Hints:
The protein is an all-alpha fold.
Amino acid sequence: xxxxxxxxxxxxxxxxxxxxxxxxxxxxxxxxxxxxxxxxxxxxxxxxxxxxxxxxxxxxxxxxxxxxxxxxxxxxxxxxxxxxxxxxxxxxxxxxxxxxxxxxxxxxxxxxxxxxxxxxxxxxxxxxxxxxxxxxxxxxxxxxxxxxxxxxxxxxxxxxxxxxxxxxxxxxxxxxxxxxxxxxxxxxxxxxxxxxxxxxxxxxxxxxxxxxxxxxxxxxxxxxxxxxxxxx
Length: 232
């Protein structure tokens, strides 16, 4: 028996399980079959076409493990951009960090995930942007453009990206400070959101947050941010 025919009902059951441990076992068993990429691609597209949300999540997460090429990563990520499950969409945003090169269509895909209605997908998109930036594949200008956006989801994505970058690039905090004190209203909003995230582990971020002045929307977000970092 060869190709997709070697995928047993047990592997399908594991891939469709609500338990992460069993879904991981499905990917492990698929990998152990040592099939060619064409066969793996057919199997993963089959899983992606199932009504079972967990099977679709397994399919997307398995792409970097079983296929590992930029073309397939992008194709599967695009395919789940409008999936009804935010967890499947989150997986679609997450696998993009495995890319070894980023082109215009990939940037558009990242921007699409940054507009997702689910904040957790925005967070993953921001983390992915940070990861790709640190690999030298995404310019900080993408984050700057999102920070100026009129869409809260895009600004939120930028904030999550900045929070992730700040861990390894302390100079990012100076950029956030500039936006917080001298930026436009959308940049201030983004800065406040980022300072809230960073401020949970940074006293400097909290002090910058206290100095922010802006519109009613910015001031309201600032008050909420101060509460979340323990500054009533």
